[in-house]
Amino acid sequence: xxxxxxxxxxxxxxxxxxxxxxxxxxxxxxxxxxxxxxxxxxxxxxxxxxxxxxxxxxxxxxxxxxxxxxxxxxxxxxxxxxxxxxxxxxxxxxxxxxxxxxxxxxxxxxxxxxxxxxxxxxxxxxxxxxxxxxxxxxxxxxxxxxxxxxxxxxxxxxxxxxxxxxxxxxxxxxxxxxxxxxxxxxxxxxxxxxxxxxxxxxxxxxxxxxxxxxxxxxxxxxxxxxxxxxxxxxxxxxxxxxxxxxx
Length: 247
Prior knowledge:
Rossmann fold; single chain; six-stranded mixed β-sheet; globular; four-stranded antiparallel β-sheet; alpha/beta
């Protein structure tokens, strides 16, 4: 199956077992250009496994992930290295380098993937620090940052190369309301500039604030994928239970 032109990423029939435990069973979901798709489901149901399969951190047992006519599942690590310039991944815990300063963490993707001079890199890092409102914290190491700051730096590092697609793995988990708002404001800024992304979350209010559509992972497959409006007014008992229990 080849994806439609307006589709940024097509997940097609993904299956994944861990030992005898089946986690994903024929997952089908499409991400459209310019939209944020929120992926919602219970704990341990495989939401992050879908993201990790897209970026090549997990190998599904079966299925395809189509991106620009290429099945990402078939790529080796060298080929995935190139793809990851275009698909950013925001890890749940930030995944910052503990021994590096904020500036060094943000500069790292530019040093690895571009031939920019140190002066040019500094300009881009300073612009990003300004965007995430951490300009005076560039010399701090992650241990000296709050959880909310670490999340913002993690997001900033993921978008340093201006990827076409951003995969958000529970970015608001563990944040207080103020830090959640700061992070969602940042994601909305990116969205206003045309950013495309998948937003894995347990946080339905956050999903309603930033997403165009919501997909619900239930019983090992995508139970529904629909607009916010339709999800909110759905009479489906599964959809109603998910939304009411997490809102």
